[in-house]
Design goal:
Elements lengths: L2 H19 L7 E10 L7 E6 L9 E7 L2 E3 L2 E5 L3 E5 L6 E5 L5 E6 L4 E5 L4 E6 L7 E7 L4 E3 L5 E7 L2 E9 L8 E5 L5 E2 L2 E4 L1
Parallel strand pairs: 1-16, 1-17, 3-6, 5-11
Antiparallel strand pairs: 1-13, 2-12, 2-14, 3-4, 6-9, 7-8, 10-11, 14-15
Length: 199
């Protein structure tokens, strides 16, 4: 076997091995449900997440924009190790910083520019702008990729969860809480869990 052919065969074998190791959507399950909040005005600043799932995930790059003096999306869910590109499609300059967990300050950047930050630690990071103190957003960095922010009606869907038993928990920016729930995920069968969060 020549060197070139051997290299191609090895690359193909490695690719097939990686594909076999990664569960497909048909081999995974979904966790979904609805969250109710008291007071209701704090509902949208909520994330539902799986705690301590085994295995490593491939780091990704996601984006959070600034437009109309707002962070978009208002709540972004990432996995520890992911990188977030902070965009500026606003008509003014912005500064992005967070004092939380593993603090950072990306400096001031103009319209059309972007800055990046990699989230090396788990936790909730408030996103602030020193130029516009009314701006506020959140990034929640989970231990694993199985997490989702709720929508305007409180619904959430977490897809691609490997089969197994887990603890399901809720994070809320205003410290509204609910007890964790034990869930068992099986392939192709959705798990439905609702939460009622309050102080």
């Amino acid at each position: 076997m020549t060197g070139a052919v051997g290299s191609r065969v090895l690359a193909l074998a490695l690719a097939l091995g990686a594909a076999a190791a990664a569960p497909t959507l048909a081999q995974t399950g979904t966790i979904q449900g609805k969250v109710e909040a008291t007071p209701a005005k704090y509902l949208e600043e909520t994330v539902v997440y799986v705690k301590q799932a085994p295995g490593a995930s491939t780091p990704k790059t996601l984006s959070m924009d600034q437009k109309g003096l707002k962070f978009i999306p208002h709540v972004l869910v990432v996995t520890k190790g992911d990188t977030v590109k902070f965009l500026n499609h606003d008509t003014v300059a912005h500064n992005v910083y967070s004092p939380d967990v593993d603090p950072y300050n990306l400096g001031t950047f103009k319209t059309g520019e972007e800055r990046s930050h990699t989230f090396a630690k788990e936790g909730a990071y408030s996103q602030l702008c020193s130029i516009h103190p009314e701006m506020l957003g959140y990034i929640y960095a989970n231990q694993n990729p199985y997490a989702a922010a709720v929508d305007a009606k409180g619904s959430y869907v977490i897809k691609g969860v490997p089969p197994g038993s887990y603890k399901l928990a809720v994070w809320n920016a205003h410290d509204l809480k609910a007890p964790e729930k034990s869930v068992t995920v099986t392939p192709g069968k959705p798990v439905v869990e609702d939460f009622s969060i309050k102080r």
